[in-house]
Amino acid sequence: MDPKWSRLMCISLIFLFCTALAGCDLQPAHQPVPDHAREKLTFCITWKIYSGRGEAIQKIVDAYNASQSNNEVRLVDEEEDLPAVESMMKQSSVDVYVLPYRFVQYLGDEGQLTDLTNDFARQKDYFYPNLWRLGVVNQGTYGIPWLGHSICLLYNKELLDEAAVNPRSITSLSGLVSACEKVEASTDAGGIGLVGANHNDVSWMVNQFVYGFGSRLVDPSGKKVMINNDQARSAIDFYKNVLGPHAQKTWMNDSGVEVMDYFRKGQVAFEFQGPWGITDIWKNGNPFKVGVISLNNIGLKSEVGPMMLALPADISPEKKAAAIDFIEYLISKPTQEMIMDGEYSPEHDAYYPFRIPVRCDLADTLVYKEHPEFIPFIEGLENPSIDVPVPRWQKIKDDFYAPGLHEVMAGHLRIEAFLQDIEIEGNRELAEPYKVRGRMK
User: How crowded is residue 343: how many other Cβ atoms within 10 Å of its Cβ?
Assistant: First the structure.
């Protein structure tokens, strides 16, 4: 055959083959899902979406939405208010909630949340066991830890240097007292900032000592008050009568806000504070360098405030699958690091961490290599002090516990009488029947 005709026949065959392919209904291997076909989720946080914290979380949500095409998350907000959350659940308007652990315990016990035990069996190893248990109710997992805080002992490095105190020598409560004495003898500052007001802060502050001295608020079943014992008595006595003399003169009527003010002004050398205690100094021009000591190192248990991810009980199977994918993204190591990017402060034109991620395997990440002072706050999640160990303790705390502690600190009530009152009133409240989804429990 003439080579010329051979080339023409090859060209014709190629043309016919391409034409045939063009007529086939071939689809791309990864065709984008049309917007209307995406599973749309509503994600509710406890901070206003227009706040610095809301904007920080919006960046995380935007990154998720950009990372895949099957789901789309919309951010909304609601106050940290239990009745408001229950109202939203009745309206079925939210698919994924951010809730404090005490809300998770209450709503999980009432059957208003989805049991995620089987869905996150593997991921539980990302977290300290004691932290994970705060989302467990009746052996079901209803809350997945996401972000939060713990409390550490912060110190003013300049004051300790002036008093020739090596912070590494503070490995016990007696070491802390000795450091306070040296600061007071060598500087014009007081030793430590304490809380004594009839305020939420006095409860979690003192409980760190109660747990550290070996007591607890209620028994493991949550049905009996356990605080009326020698360990709790010694803990409160130490706080009031041993540390108290080294605190600011107004401590019996101060909350954490006043303590931060004293510390910021260099009027006390130590304070018990969360990660915002560090950023507060940054925001105010770094008047001095802040050091951090884990409460585990001095025999105390750190107060923790984990915010957890939860799903409503009536979520559809399709939305549940999408929500699980979103939660897995939120607790992944890269996204946990994004939490430390912090919130933007227009006043200072800078970003500041407002909470810490709660995975226990983040110490080797870049953000903690740059800011190792935050590592002790993660360590504080390992052996926590639980301010509200069962949902009903919240009422006991508000009505009797915090007010009673203030009376003790002010010298109007003996420690023994306070503990007896809490045992009586607390057991009465714990024994009181209450309604669960229309029935008495």
Answer: 19
Distances from the Cα of 125 to the Cα of 19, 331, 384, angstroms: 56, 12, 17
CA distance 333 to 126: 9
3-class DSSP assignment, residue 119:
coil
Contacts of 105 (CB under 8 A, 6+ apart): 134, 137, 142, 390, 391
269 touches 189 (CB < 8 A): yes
Amino acid at the residue 394: Q
Q: What is the length of the chain? A: 441
Give how far the C-alpha of residue 435 lies from the chain's centroid of Cα atoms, to the nearest Å. Answer: 29
* Token output for 310: 């939860």
User: Which residues make beta-bridge pairs with 370?
Assistant: none
* Distance set, CA 353 to CA 13, 149, 270, 283, 298 (Å): 66, 11, 21, 11, 25
- Residue 378: closest CA among 310, 296, 300: 296
Question: Could you give the 3-state DSSP secondary structure of residue 172?
Answer: coil
Q: At what angle do helices 276-283 and 256-264 cross, to 10 degrees?
A: 50
How far is it, in rounded angstroms, from Cα 199 to Cα 402? 6
The DSSP annotation for 29-42 comes to TTPPPPGGGSEEEE
Residue 122, SS3 per DSSP: coil
Q: Please measure the distance between the N-terminal and C-terminal CA atoms of the chain and give it in whole angstroms.
A: 95
Let me know: does 72 contact 37? Beta carbons within 8 Å: no
DSSP 125: G
pLDDT in tens, the chain (441 residues): 444 334 434 444 444 444 443 444 333 334 454 555 689 999 999 999 999 999 999 999 999 999 988 999 999 999 888 899 999 999 988 999 999 999 999 999 999 999 999 999 999 999 999 999 999 998 999 999 999 999 999 999 999 999 999 999 999 999 999 999 999 999 999 999 999 999 999 999 999 999 999 999 999 888 999 999 999 999 999 999 999 999 999 999 999 999 999 999 999 999 999 999 999 999 999 999 999 999 999 999 999 999 999 999 999 999 999 999 999 999 999 999 899 888 988 888 888 888 889 999 887 776 677 778 888 998 899 999 999 998 889 999 999 999 999 999 999 999 999 999 999 999 999 998 654 443 334
Q: Count other C-beta atoms under 10 Å from residue 359's C-beta.
A: 26
**Distance in angstroms (rounded) separating the CA atoms of residues 97 and 86:** 11
Domains in the chain, CATH or no CATH each: 36-142+307-357 (3.40.190.10), 152-303+386-435 (3.40.190.10)
Q: What whole-number distance in Å separates Cα of residue 315 and Cα of residue 56? A: 27
pTM for this entry? 0.86
